[in-house]
Design brief:
about 240 residues, alpha+beta, seven-stranded antiparallel beta sheet, three-stranded antiparallel beta sheet
Length: about 240
């Protein structure tokens, strides 16, 4: 079963004594979307995606679009239709996949707390982004905050304002301290991307200083995909959403 995991993931599993649990849970990881998950993926208006640029910086992005902006034309392929996406068209995600085609993706239904992860390699054809699936598997609903999102009759494209800096200001600190959900992107030495969810009560993210966050890793499926990636590559991309 170790072929499911790379050396970083195995190292963390061994450190915490959960390698046998990880091997059992790893049986759900395949290169194909199970039939029962196809409808779930295709009806989501939201997807979380992780990507990397040529400098090795990791970014985690939010894609919002009409129902059906993601499709599963066959069990080994995920398709993203850019023409049906209304989140920012200049998101760094689109440039990153030109430079580094690997992505991680997470489909999350907040009302039911269901989630499904797909990692793979992208190719772009016009407005369509095809993902050749390398890893696909469901996750348990632990630590997902249940929400019912209000959906508009029609989505409108947005052009968000951007603030850049190298340390946290007071608005960012207040936002982080109130957050009960974050998403994190990570990458293995082989370049494989992953997008994962972290959740807890508000305040679960601790601000150490203007440059440092402390985030707990609660008991989960024992796979340690994110921490395993960090063993090999410490770069991360963190996304917080103001719901």
């Amino acid at each position: 079963m170790n072929r499911v995991y790379h050396s970083g993931e195995i190292e963390i599993q061994q450190r915490v004594g959960e390698e046998s649990i990880a091997n059992a849970n790893g049986r759900v990881v395949t290169d194909a979307v199970i039939s029962g998950a196809i409808n779930f993926i295709e009806k989501q208006p939201m997807a979380i995606v992780s990507s990397a640029n040529l400098q090795g910086q990791i970014w985690t992005s939010l894609l919002i679009g009409d129902f059906g902006f993601t499709r599963v034309p066959n069990a080994n392929t995920l398709t993203i239709d850019k023409s049906k996406i209304y989140s920012a068209s200049n998101d760094v995600f689109y440039q990153n996949i030109k430079e580094h085609p690997e992505i991680g993706s997470l489909f999350l239904e907040l009302s039911s707390r269901r989630r499904f992860r797909i990692n793979g390699v992208t190719s772009t054809n016009g407005s369509r982004i095809d993902v050749k699936i390398h890893e696909a598997y469901p996750n348990c609903p632990k630590y997902i905050q249940r929400r019912v999102l209000s959906m508009p009759k029609h989505f409108n494209e947005v052009s968000p304002s951007q603030n850049r800096g190298k340390e946290l200001g007071l608005p960012e600190k207040n936002w982080i301290e109130d957050a009960d959900t974050l998403f994190v992107g990570s990458q293995s030495n082989e370049g494989r991307m992953d997008a994962s969810h972290r959740g807890g009560n508000p305040g679960f993210i601790e601000i150490i200083d203007d440059h440092t966050l402390k985030i707990p890793d609660y008991q989960g499926n024992s796979m340690y995909n994110t921490l395993g990636n960090f063993v090999q590559n410490p770069n991360a991309g963190i996304l917080l959403i103001d719901f």
